Amino acid sequence: QVQVVESGGGLVQAGGSLRLSCTASGLTFRGYSMGWFRQAPGKEREGVSCISWSGGSTYYADSVKGRFTIFRDNARITLYLQMNSLKPEDTAMYYCAAVQACSPVYLRIRAAEDNYWGQGTQVTVSS
Residue 27: what pLDDT? Predict the structure, then answer.
């Protein structure tokens, strides 16, 4: 069974930065594309970014493009999300998960699934 543990969230002022981490077990990490997702109170979970298994291909939602950077360290079995220039609208619980492929379509498919999510890490951006 795939298990992920997200960490690195916190409270930050608008314009600040955070780096999220995600460690995975129960899967051959280097063989999977991975994605970051978020869910704000009262809203549906959405895909934020994804990265191919090799790290050679990435995708960002328009809302975070130019501010967030996704990267991975396959040797450390860890996925990262560097978040800069944070805005209050970035406030949400952030999750990571494996995706079938790195694309907006597969991010939407995975975001809609109810099963196999970690505990997430809370990001709160104050104005």
Answer: 76
